[in-house]
Each structure stands twice: as C-alpha cells, then as structure tokens.
Amino acid sequence: MIEIDGNRLNGRVEAFAVIGATQKGGVNRQALAEGDRRARQLLADLARARGFSVSQDPMANLFIRREGRDDSLAPLLIGSHLDSQPAGGRFDGALGTLSAFEVLESLEDAGIETERPVVVVAWTNEEGCRFAPGCMGSMAFSAGEIPSEWHRKLATDGAPFAGELTATIESLPGAQMVPLGFPVHAYLEVHIEQGPSLEANDIPIGVVGGIQGTRWLDVTVRGQTAHAGTTGLAYRRDPLRALTAGLANLYEAIMPADADARFTIGRISVEPGSVNAIPEEARCTVDIRHPDPDRLDELEKQVASAIEKEAGQQRCSVSIARSFDMPPCTFPPELQDTIERAAANAGFKSTRMLSGAFHDALFVNRVAPASMIFVPCRDGLSHNEAEFVEPRHAVAGCQVLARATVSLAGETRR
Amino acid sequence: MIEIDGNRLNGRVEAFAVIGATQKGGVNRQALAEGDRRARQLLADLARARGFSVSQDPMANLFIRREGRDDSLAPLLIGSHLDSQPAGGRFDGALGTLSAFEVLESLEDAGIETERPVVVVAWTNEEGCRFAPGCMGSMAFSAGEIPSEWHRKLATDGAPFAGELTATIESLPGAQMVPLGFPVHAYLEVHIEQGPSLEANDIPIGVVGGIQGTRWLDVTVRGQTAHAGTTGLAYRRDPLRALTAGLANLYEAIMPADADARFTIGRISVEPGSVNAIPEEARCTVDIRHPDPDRLDELEKQVASAIEKEAGQQRCSVSIARSFDMPPCTFPPELQDTIERAAANAGFKSTRMLSGAFHDALFVNRVAPASMIFVPCRDGLSHNEAEFVEPRHAVAGCQVLARATVSLAGETRR
User: If you classify domain B6-211+328-412 with CATH, what class do you get?
Assistant: First the structure.
C-alpha cells in the first residue's frame, strides 16, 4: 500500500512559497516571469536528484516521467501548475504540482513498479493574469498546436509573449524538448477548492464531477450626461439609474431561485465620471455560471431583459456583448468512481461536487479522461495572499491522488 | 433708453470662441492656461480701445472700469468668467462676460453717464476643472485673501498653481494691479441656464432667486472578495449587491417625491474590479441638492439609512463621508425685483428660478447684493461642446442686464 510523506509534501510547499514570496505571506509568481522560471528549475532539480527524466514542450509545459513496466503504454498524467496570481496564495497550483511529485517520490520510496509510466506535469500559465487567456499550456497541449495569435500577445507589464516563452524554455537547458501533445491514459489534478463548501461541511476530499459553464457579458447602457444640479427628473436620461435598477432585480431573482446559478458583477463604471454629472454611459461586466448549458442561455436572456426594461423606462439604450463563453464540462464517471474509492480506501470522507472555476483538467479532458481532487481552503479564500490549506488536508489530497495513481497506472510488484 | 448692439455681442461671442476652439465647435480654455490668458488679453485690448481702464488683482481677476459721475461711490459690478471646461461650450461664462462688456460699450455709445462707476469683471477659474475648487477668483475676492494652501496646488496637467497664476498676471503687463477685494454696490451676472426649463417653457429670461445647497458624499461599502464561480450565495458578502439595491431604492424614492430635490450618482467603482471576482469594496459619490438646508440633512440621512439597510442584509459595512457641503444661498429680493422690472421694461417674459449650479454670484453675494440673469440653452446642454444659445436669447439677456445696470448705477444725463 502506498503511503505518501506528509512532512516532505508540506515542507516542499513551504520551500516553493519562498520563490516570489510577498510580504503578506503569499506569492507573486506570474507566468513566464522570473519567479515562474525559478520554480520550474527547482522542480527539475528535485526530479533529476531522484533520477526521473525531465522534458518540456514548445509551450514550456514541464514533464517529469517515472517509467512503468511497459513504456509503450500511454502514461498516467498527474499535476497542476506553478504560476500564480500577482497577489496569489502559496497553494493554488503549487499544491497540486507538488502533490503529484510527492506521489512519484513515494512510488520510488516504496519500490512500487507501475504498469504504465506516470508523468508529473506543471502546465504553463494557468492563471492568465500576465498573459490572457488562462490555461494556455493545457489548451495548446490538448489542441496540439499553439494558436499563432498568441505569439503577438503582450504581457500586462509589456513583455512580449514569444520572447518570454523562449526565455522560459531556455532557462531549463537540461530538459529534453518534446513535441506538443502526446497520448494520455488519464489525467488527475489535486487543487484547492477555492470555495467554502468543503470546509463548511467538514469534508476533506471533493471528487470533481465537472466544471460549470461560464459566460461573460459586457453591458453598456447609454443615456445623456447633464448637470447634476440643473437637470430635473423629467429631463434626465440616467443610464446608471437604469443599470442599478436592473442589477438590483437580477441579484434578487437569479441566485435565490437557482442554487446552481452564479451571478456576479465584478466591474462597474460610468462616463464621464464626475461627481456632479449625470453619467452619459454606465457599463458593467456580468459573470454567469451554470452546469446546464440551456440555463446559461436562459440566464443571459434574463439579464438582457431586466436591464433593457429599466433602460427603456429611463429612455436609455442598451448593448450587450459576450466576451467569453465556456460550455460546462463533465468528467468521466469512471474516473470519479476511482477517486471516490481511493478516498474511502485511505479513510477520508469525500463528496462529489462541481468546480466553479476553470482548471487545466477542463482542457485535458478534451483528449483524455480527466478529473480532479479538491481539498478545503480556509474561508474559501483564493487568489489572495491569505489563502491557506491545513497541512492535514494537503496530506489527504495527496494520499488520495497516490491511491488513485496506483489504481490507474496499475501496480506490478517487482 | 439704452439699447445694446446685438450683432456686436454675438460677433464677440464668435470671436472669443476662436480662442481654444475645439474641433467639435466648443472651447478648451481652462483656467490660467494659454487660452485663458489670450482671452483676457483680447478683452483688455478691446477695453483699452474704448478708453476704459483695465486692472487686475492678485487672483488675476480682471476688471474693466467705466467711471461714473461720482467715482467715490462703490461701483456696480457686472460680469462672469472666461475660463471653460476642457470640452466646454462657447457660452458658459463668456456670454456673461461679453454681455457685461457690451453694456459698457452701449453706455459709451449712447453717451449715458451713470451716477456710480460700472465695472466689468472676468473672474478667475470659475470652472474648477484644471485647479479645484471652482470659483477661486470670486471666493478669494469675497474673502479678501487667497487661502495659503492654494499656492501648493497642482493642475490636472501637473503645472503648479502659483506659477500659472503669476504667469497669467504677467501676461497682462499693461493692467494696473489692485488689491484683492473692494466695496461693491451690487453684482449682476448673465449666464446660460445650464438646464432645460427656460427653453421648455419658452421663457427668455430667468430671474435667479438663489442657488440651491449642495452636499457631496463619498460612500464606501465593504464586503469580501471571493471567486465568482466557486462562491455560493450563502457565502457571499457582496458590497455591490448592497450598493445597487440601496441606490435603486433611493432613485425611486427621492426625486419623484420632492420636485426640488436632486439626487445624482456621478461616479461608481469596485475593487478589485475583476470580471470573475465578487468585489471587496464598492464605492460611489452622491450629489444631493436642495434649496432648503433642513431637507439636505434629511436627504443625507435617507441616503445613509437606505444603503446601511442593504449592507446589513449582505453582511457588509458602510462608511459615508461628506466631501463638500455648500449651504443654499438666497439673493436679495430687491435685486430680483430690479431684474424683473428691467425684463418687463425691455419687453421680455421672465420667471423666477433657482440655480442648480454654483456661480461666482454665490460668493460675491457674501459681500454685496448679487443676483443673476439666466438665458435658455438648447436642450439644457452645458459643459459640452454642443452647448448653444440662440442669438436672440443672448441679446435678451444682455438687454435686461443693460436696463438693470442703468437702474442700479443711476442715470444722470450729461
């Protein structure tokens, strides 16, 4: 029976948190920048010290391979990412990558030979904050090509994507270059929940059944700017009045009625933005999520109709554009069963759940069976320097990954 | 009977609109910048050509004086300002200043001697857009001193106030320097309404009885940022949900119930401002206006209580700070009677009204009886390059100012 080394795992998380450490205890290790490169180098050094082979592909996805009994078989892939948000936490991504590496070391320590190779992956740019979109590495891996327009992208700090990608690859000169994409038997990823429900229900393991669909809308309401002091009600065409009324209705209507729906306004602004001027234009973003694609369509219509109704009353016009549309994804039930059995086998309570956020697993699931193992994070906080995972929960997630790995890669006693 | 030259007046408005002209037909003549200096120079040149004396004070307020029979009497002061918004109209300020100068020329043309001197004034920085606050010139004039902290102010373009003021004064080397503040018999100012009511009621002359009180509030609602996808309704503490609900209630409650009230949200923003993050903080400005100071207090309480109620429901906290508080001002009834008689005498329909916006007259009224003559502007548009005053309305305002000037300064046939 495989047993992971919890102290080694939590110590590794501490060690990686030093790379790009922020004053408030988080990390700033944005994709393809200096900190990201140093984290890749450290992982590659640890891998070589254990005799694992290290390779990378043209997207700088980093692979660490432990051979199986039959190396012609498609490997089991396990991992996550090492990049972070600019004021990110030390667990988002790193915990999953280091849990996967801990599984590789534990297999080695226990002298377990697997039927298939097991490959640890650290995907490039999951976060998407320095270069959009997120999940670039897994997206290109599953597509088998890098979209040509990515090479013309610029970072938020002005650096060109193509140059940063090349420099990152060159910062690991010892890693063998492999082509983009290869056959994968299955993919598993440990990740923090980034939400409060596991902690609130005191359950250490979430078995992820899929990722809910997300649609982003850009809403613009246009009225007429006028002087706040001189313009009576009858003469006002106030787009912010229309927008706030529409949003107030939607906040009341959407989420209480449908527990699976998520409705969030993350940005709002007005033009010209003078304290004493009725706005000419009011804008906001809308983030709607749902596991059911038909309900996403219905919610989009509901948003449009509520805002258009209020805009009509204020003699304002509305335009709504989709800026992002990601259909829901369902992970194969067999893989969820495997994780559930592994959790029970390791003595941990588990629950099936959906992921509210994207992950690399969503893209890998397009070319191979994929699923995820969630662990609780304190107060549901993530993308935040205060992000925290209890050591016992980190150990639990890794232990379940280890059992599932042995089950999926096939154990053959030497 | 004095008659102004309407063609000369409208031609002058055209001529001044060339200084700082924008492509869309407006002007950019911000206070103490190049365009403002050139407008002052042109007015001073016109004044000297007619033999009037030109002076300025340490705030660069510009004065053009036509002597009366008894020069020891306090002068009648008439005028407005020459500075504009960055994308301003050609009438706001310039029409009042050039109407006052037209009255001076018409007195000269008709050979009318007045008992008192008549002084035309162009106040410095009424708009307050390049340097805050607005009405700096009239404020300092009525206070008799320049607040010392103004000298440390920087323009929105980075230029230091003290340097720009000195350079503006030095750009009129021929003007006699006079101390700040002098006794004033009365002050009259022609101005565009900057609102739609005169045009809507087809009345050419507004007799301004006062300026409504204004209070500005900075509202901050604090909640907790969290991931839009992973955070269910029960775990949300969404400050924007609270703020939009509060504002939607206030828009419905305040203005329909009280026709004298004005309630405007000119700025709104959220932090961190990510499309997929529930905001940590939502902020807005509130501009409330009312002619009755007690109602201003009540409205402030109503705003606070509506937002606090909604914030409580979302487990958010609220802080509200006053950023500006200007009590209502009432102009002397006798001066309004004088304007009303002048309008009737010139054959124009007039109506008494309040000003929703500040003007220099508010500050002059602290040291001398003051009132204003409003003329209609198209669609109530102002602070806008499309601002437009029909020539016949410009003429009407100037004609009423001329009659009121003769009445207040006292006519003595030579």
Answer: alpha beta
